[in-house]
Amino acid sequence: MRVRINGKHMELDGEASILSLVELKGINPESVVVEYNHEIPKREKWAEITLREGDNIEIVKFMGGG
Question: What are the transmembrane regions (predicted)?
Answer without folding.
Answer: none
